[in-house]
Amino acid sequence: MTPAYRFYPTLLNTFSRFLNGDNLTEQQVLDAINRVPSPTTAAQQRGISFEETLVKGTEEEQFNAEILQKMRKLLPRPIVDTQVYCQWQIDDVLFYGYVDLIGKYKAVDIKTTGSYKPGRYLFNHQNLYLHALKRHGIKLMEYLITDFTDVYVESYALTHPIDRQLEEIRLFKAFINEHRDQITDKKIMIIE
């Protein structure tokens, strides 16, 4: 089947938050689809800097050395690759994106947050990276999370159910079709 749509996890996670009543408006979802630029927040910039420091060892003085050490101990050894492109066709949807890094058997995404609750990434669309990477021997999707006071890990195996994410993809296609006249970024739809 030829793909008709191109979706990436950040966009699907935004739509998921909208579906689950997370104080997002329909217009904010459309802005995300249309890639309307918005300024990088201080929290987002701190997360970007933290990831760079963690992986590349740059500007370490700006972060807690103990947190960096704890996170580094959890990184796969060896790190096979960073910013790995993934794609997986789900019916008529080409799902694609980049995972932060991969080891021999696991993919790792580094997350920073102001507050953490266990199970936060249970239904994250990045879990679908596992299915895109299984042909490379990847069997585990792991989130390394810090709130800058402690470190948390969430791990999901290939056997982890993805029914909710697949249903949200179906609902997102319906949303796209319903708002087709408001979508200016046509990269999301391959055929019109």
Summarize the helices and strands and which ones pair or pack.
Elements: E1 5-7, H1 9-19, H2 26-33, H3 42-56, H4 65-74, E2 81-90, E3 93-102, E4 106-112, H5 129-133, E5 140-146, E6 151-157, H6 163-178
Parallel strand pairs: 1-3, 4-5
Antiparallel strand pairs: 2-3, 3-4, 5-6
Structure notes:
The longest helix is centred in the C-terminal third of the chain and has 16 residues, at 163-178. This protein has helices spanning 9-19, 26-33, 42-56, 65-74, 129-133, 163-178; strands at 5-7, 81-90, 93-102, 106-112, 140-146, 151-157. Helix 5 (129-133) links the parallel strand 4 and strand 5. The protein contains six helices and six strands; from the N terminus they run E-H-H-H-H-E-E-E-H-E-E-H. It is 34% helix and 23% strand. It starts with a strand and ends in a 14-residue tail after the last helix. It is globular. It is of the alpha/beta class and 192 residues long. Helix 1 runs antiparallel to helix 2 and helix 1 crosses helix 6 (163-178).
Question: pLDDT below 50 for ≥5 consecutive residues: which ranges?
Answer: none
User: Percent helix among the residues?
Assistant: 25-40%
User: Oligomeric status of the shown chains?
Assistant: single chain
What structural class do you assign from the helix and strand content?
alpha/beta
